[in-house]
Amino acid sequence: MDIPDRGDAAYEGSFQVDTPGDLLVLASWPGRRVLSFRIEGPGDPPLRLQRSGPPPQRLHIDVGEETIAAGREWKLFVRALPDRGAVRASVVLDLPERPDPVPPEPPLPDVSAPPPPAALIEPWLASRGAPSGAPEGVTRMFDAVERFRVTVVSSQGELLPDPCAWQAPFLKHAASIRDDAAASASGAGAERRCFERIADAIRRVEALRVSADPVLVGRAPADPLERLAWRSRRNELIRPLEQELDDLQQAARDGRCPRLEENWPGRLVACLTACERHFDERTRLGDDEAVNGHLVRDQWARILAAGQVLEAILGAPGAGAGSSAAPPP
Question: Are 195 and 320 in contact, with CB atoms under 8 Å apart?
Fold first, then answer.
């Protein structure tokens, strides 16, 4: 959605929700312009959720059976009031997925029989070491997946809360690639280019976080002319990264990134974009005033660990996403 400089913009669209579950709207855009979002569902009065504010914005509705019974037509409204700065807003609509068929109820257990063993957790949630004699690259992949796993899975084998909803499908996919590599030395395949771009974006955002460049981490000069030059140079450094993050989100929607389970690339990039906004703002506003501080505290270590997984899958030298990152161009 393109929003003109000093102008307003409005968008209205309809969509169908055919099954109960989580309905998500994830929106991001550069700068500080305030956008308003409204979702309207079926019913009388209609189910409604509104959010307004600077980027990013996240709207979540738990669609129940009773809502589906009332109707399946929904509407999304986006509004931007006149303000300075032309921006392009990226809005991701994530619809509930149709659940798997419910299996028939098992017969009642025989009380005279010994109790069954405890249910095993899903293999991709469990710890797994590299096979004996595995090539060095495969061992690095196993180690990276395990480092990520322990950040998102509890000691009881349960997934930890994830407001961005990318970690479980990412871990499942990474474990599948890891296991295939151990069996046949296969790699990332069609996803390789997408993985390269996401890993590079994580490195660049981490470079922004740890940068000592005074243009990136210093306060704006008091002198108007010096401040204008400072802002111009800062935009030269930050804008390419923001454009890459926006394009990555678009790639996750239009097929340039292959469609993967639960679109975890799009969700990961949306979360990465929210973290980049925080790191961009905190040097000017401070940690407490910069947006998305709670999200960074919850997500950043996991995003860095995911970057290490992607680099290990790609066979990149030095799997650390933060240890050898270069500044954003």
Answer: no
Burial class (CB in 10 A: 0-12, 13-18, 19+), 134: middle
Q: How far apart are the first and last CA of the chain?
A: 26
Contacts of 110 (CB under 8 A, 6+ apart): none
CA distance 203 to 307: 8
Give the containing element (helix H, strand E) for 109.
none
User: Which regions of the chain are under pLDDT 70?
Assistant: 99-103, 108-120, 185-189, 316-329
Query: In the chain, what are the domain boundaries?
Result: 2-94, 121-329
DSSP-derived secondary structure letter, 222: S
Helix (H) or strand (E) holding 236: helix 224-254
CATH number of 2-94: 2.60.120.680
Tens digit of each residue's pLDDT (9 = 90 or more) over 290-314: 888 989 999 999 999 999 999 999 9
